[in-house]
Design a protein that fits this description.
The chain is of the alpha+beta class. About 15% of the residues lie in helices and about 50% in strands. It is built from four helices and twelve strands; from the N terminus they run H-E-E-E-E-H-E-E-H-H-E-E-E-E-E-E. Strands 1, 2, 3, 4, 5, 6, 7, 8, 9, 10, 11 and 12 form a twelve-stranded antiparallel beta sheet that branches.
Length: about 300
């Protein structure tokens, strides 16, 4: 009986099959995992620097915000959809109103400051803090239902009367629907990508952010590191008193996802946008640099 050597096409077929098998096995299914009664605590920090060029004069402003947020898992359906209460337990804001002056607001010790804009923001957070926002979140992180407490809605409607820039029900629901990092619908291999979309409504424009998410690598602890590459589009609203035009934007970020536990342990996103603001009476350039970090508290 003679020994028959494999032909070149056969060898290539085997190599392709082995390669495809390895690629399939390398894919990760990234899913949020929740258990009834579970509690997750996140600390969110946001630093925003604004530089405005008005009539040849440069005006700089800086704001730092910190929020403590609790997720209480109320129940988990058979398919993994979780119903939870998300609660902002504390908000702290600091604003630099001059080279040597900084005003601060803390919902734990609410006191008025000399900064009227900071006082306005503080009033908004006092309406939000310690309120139960009940949401339904899919294992991919997509939120498809948001319930806002009735008494809070009444307070929001009362404060929004005659003020187009005030917080409203639609904006609140929009914020809550974007409270989690969205994972891909299917398994993803290293260097694989998927898309996450967010939208923010202002009285003057719709700000849309489309982020390319990339499975960058795995760290020594088995966490998946996800790179974020955001692209921004600003669509002015017809008839708005102020016109916002995006001139340039750039950004980058990274998410650390614990696959075994099914939670984001930390994330950071840095974005810079240069816009032209035209109120009809005057126009100026404004550059906003915002750094947002979220950390799971042990």
């Amino acid at each position: 009986m003679s020994l028959r050597l494999p032909t070149l096409p056969t060898i290539l077929s085997l190599l392709i099959a082995i390669t495809l098998s390895a690629e399939t096995n390398a894919q990760e299914v990234l899913r949020w995992k929740f258990q009834r009664g579970q509690q997750l605590k996140y600390n969110v920090q946001e630093n925003m620097e604004t530089v405005m060029n008005v009539g040849g004069n440069e005006i700089q402003q800086q704001m730092k915000m910190q929020m403590d947020i609790v997720w209480n898992i109320l129940g988990v359906a058979a398919g993994g959809d979780a119903t939870m209460d998300q609660i902002v337990t504390r908000a702290q804001i600091k604003m630099a109103s001059g080279p040597d002056k900084e005003d601060a607001f803390d919902t734990n010790k609410p006191e008025k400051t000399e900064n009227l804009f900071l006082n306005s923001m503080g009033d908004v957070f006092l309406k939000i803090v310690n309120q139960n926002f009940t949401i339904t979140m899919k294992p991919t992180g997509e939120v498809d239902n948001v319930e806002i407490p009735a008494e809070m809605l009444e307070a929001i409607k009362a404060s929004a009367a005659g003020n187009p820039a005030a917080l409203n029900e639609s904006t609140l629901k929009q914020m809550m629907k974007q409270s989690a990092v969205t994972m891909p619908a299917n398994g993803v291999a290293p260097n694989g990508t998927w898309t996450s979309r967010q939208s923010v409504e202002s009285p003057y424009a719709t700000i849309s952010i489309t982020s390319t998410m990339t499975f960058a690598s795995k760290d020594a602890d088995g966490n998946v590191l996800i790179d974020i590459d955001p692209a921004v589009v600003i669509t002015p609203k017809e008839g708005a008193a102020v016109k916002m035009t995006l001139m340039e934007s750039k950004g980058k970020g990274q998410v650390t996802f614990n696959v075994a536990q099914g939670v984001v342990t930390k994330s950071q996103l840095v974005m810079e946008m240069t816009m032209e603001i035209d109120s009809g009476q005057r126009a100026f350039q404004q550059t906003v640099t915002k750094t947002t970090a979220m950390t799971l508290v042990p």
